[in-house]
């Protein structure tokens, strides 16, 4: 009924498990969504840190972060991800002030002059049977013993204990990719929550890597079945409040069959503006 995707990323795995119906709209039907200030802030701060890490290690200070920040702001001022937010002047100021405070918060969490990075925004992929697993690693570095460390920046709040393991499964996914591509399992995987100053660190093991391939394959099988039957169930929860597809969600009295026509009509004019 729907084409089965041939690749999975951590965000796709989480999206399907969070709500199959929203996954259908976004990843199977590929319907447009309006940009969100939260996502754009995250992209901008990631870009600042990428630019910072393109400088020699000894020069990575809060002072040199300023031109990196200015460059990222200049880039985003032209980017539809930002322009479509249609912020007024006061909202723009608040938006950039928040991005800068997240950048400052980063410097309170670690000293970038001591980090031995070997890759930024690394795109990795590996095969598991017929399925391609792919992901982008924010930063790959070497620890004092030469071990690989995967770092993922987060601009949202740290999850409560209940959700910590599911968040870490995304990073274990990167660990699997590192092992498949570089032949070496990372010594550590870290999630840096810039807004709260918390870092969650995990040590990958043979079991955690195997768990990722098992879980991802199981999720993919569920996606395959849903594509064949057309049965993508809505899973109402916390995500509903920010879900752009709510007007077509059966859990809210909507008709999903209308989304293919109405969502582009509603959101694409924004994208073309
Ligand atoms: S509104 Fe909620 S249940 Fe419906 S598609 Fe969106 S996230 Fe899923």
Task: Give your account of this protein's structure.
- The structure is a single chain.
- The two termini are 33 Å apart.
- Strands 1, 2, 3, 4, 5 and 6 form a six-stranded mixed β-sheet that branches.
- The chain is globular, with a radius of gyration of 20 Å.
- Among the domains are: 37-112; 115-216, Lambda Exonuclease, Chain A (Alpha-Beta Complex).
- Helix 1 packs across helix 2, helix 1 runs antiparallel to helix 7 (161-182) and helix 7 crosses helix 8.
- The protein has helices at 10-18, 20-28, 37-53, 62-77, 80-83, 89-109, 161-182, 206-229, 259-272; strands spanning 7-8, 116-128, 131-142, 148-154, 188-193, 198-202.
- By secondary structure, the chain is an alpha/beta fold.
- The longest helix has 24 residues, at 206-229.
- A hairpin with a 5-residue loop joins strand 3 (131-142) and strand 4 (148-154).
- 50% of the residues lie in helices and 16% in strands.
- The mean pLDDT is 91.
- Iron/sulfur cluster binds next to helix 2.
Bound molecules: iron/sulfur cluster
The SSE order reads EHHHHHHEEEHEEHH
Quick one: CATH class of the domain at 115-216? Alpha Beta
Report the span from N to C terminus. Answer: 33 Å
Radius of gyration: 20 Å
The protein's oligomeric status is: single chain
Number of strands: 6
CATH architectural group of the domain at 115-216:
Alpha-Beta Complex
Beta-strand portion reads 15-25%
Biggest sheet record = 6 strands, mixed
Overall average pLDDT: 91
CATH topology of the domain at 115-216: Lambda Exonuclease, Chain A
How many helical stretches? 9
Show unreliable segments. Answer: none
**Percent of residues in helices:** 40-55%
Form type: globular
Structural class: alpha/beta
């Amino acid at each position: 009924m729907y084409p089965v995707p041939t690749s999975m990323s951590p965000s796709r795995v989480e999206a399907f498990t969070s709500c199959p119906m929203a996954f259908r709209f976004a990843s199977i039907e590929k319907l447009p969504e309006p940009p969100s200030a939260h996502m754009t802030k995250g992209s901008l701060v990631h870009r600042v840190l990428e630019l910072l890490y393109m400088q020699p290690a000894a020069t990575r200070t809060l002072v040199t972060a300023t031109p990196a920040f200015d460059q990222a702001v200049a880039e985003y001022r032209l980017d539809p991800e930002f322009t479509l937010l249609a912020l007024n002047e006061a909202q723009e100021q608040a938006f950039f002030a928040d991005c800068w405070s997240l950048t400052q918060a980063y410097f309170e969490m670690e000293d970038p002059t001591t980090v031995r990075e070997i890759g930024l925004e690394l795109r990795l992929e590996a095969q598991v049977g017929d399925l391609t697993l792919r992901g982008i690693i924010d930063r790959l570095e070497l620890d004092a013993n030469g071990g690989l460390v995967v770092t993922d920046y987060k601009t949202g709040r740290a999850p409560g204990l209940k959700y910590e393991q599911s968040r870490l499964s995304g990073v274990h996914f990167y660990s699997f990719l590192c092992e498949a591509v570089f032949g070496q399992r990372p010594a550590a995987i870290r999630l840096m929550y810039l807004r709260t100053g918390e870092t969650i660190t995990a040590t990958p093991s043979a079991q955690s890597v195997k768990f990722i391939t098992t879980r991802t394959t199981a999720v993919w099988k569920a996606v395959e079945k849903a594509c064949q039957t057309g049965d993508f169930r809505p899973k109402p929860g916390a995500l509903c409040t920010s879900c752009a597809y709510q007007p077509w969600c059966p859990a809210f009295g909507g008709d999903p069959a209308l989304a293919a026509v109405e969502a582009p009509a509603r959101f694409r004019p924004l994208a073309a503006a």
